[in-house]
Amino acid sequence: MMVLVRPLSGRLFDRYGHKMIIYPGVLSAIVGLILLAFTDRTETLLLAGIFYGIAYGVITPTLQAIAVKAVKKEKQGTANAMYFSGMDFGIAIGSIGLGAVASKTSYHFIYGFSVVFLVILLIIYTIVLFKKNAQNEKSIAEAM
Question: Are 6 and 14 a contacting pair, CB within 8 Å?
Answer without folding.
Answer: no
